[in-house]
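Sample entry (274 residues):
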Amino acid sequence: MVLLHVKKGAESLFLYETSCEADMKDVYHDVTAIFNGRIRIEQLCHDFEELSKHGSVMPEDMQGLAPGQAEELRLEDEWADKCEASGGWRPNSDPMGRRNGRQPSEQMERVLLDAAAEAKTAISKAQVEAKKALSVPLVAELLHMLRGATLVVYPMGLPPHDPCFLTEQMCDEFASAEIPSREGIPSGEAMLWFCSRHLSREGAVSKALNSSNEKTKVIVKITGASKGPPSKEAAITEEDQLKMMQHFRQRQDQLQVGLEIPSPPTRLTNRLTN
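Predicted structure, serialized as tokens:
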């Protein structure tokens, strides 16, 4: 299998497996889908943590109001009772004023947090070091898992304006390259680069990489069409550069100490004086 190490700038993102005979159009589709899916999952995991603390998001016209102001304006969250957490809830007001302050029970809170932790681990950059590749089906599976967790905690579903609201169709769409998440890249605008060279969408992988070796491992960088070619990475990282500077300073200090003329041995001094 040909292994693509996908990066954005100097940031390592994920591994993707393909083959020399694969069509570059399919590679573009899958890499973009995984790229967008990872961003979507990261956002969902953050929202899951907020959901587990402060309940679902209130309607837009009720967000950011001071305590008691909603009553004065005669505003009511019609979704609060419709979308109540299984097992009841505990009061925990949202300091940002976005959520209704109905924190799920400890058991249901754990369901949300465990699902978020599992999803974050599956897409983390540590998977690159572990040499585990990501795939479109895996991204779709993670999204469906997160949706399943919300249905366990909220059997009646979440309000449609809540960022954690997911339908089966939405999971499938987010796992495709057609609908990018926030900060994502639309399918037709994605560009892959190898050795500062843009990889064409036409032809096979072997032609794009100029290699028919199925054990090829390369680093490719992804950008949007309007971004142009990615900047070249520094030969060494800032951390390595700092370590080298510290080493050279220590070495310089050692050399300066070594240049001092040592006192001659006592035996030699006595011989010269006599």
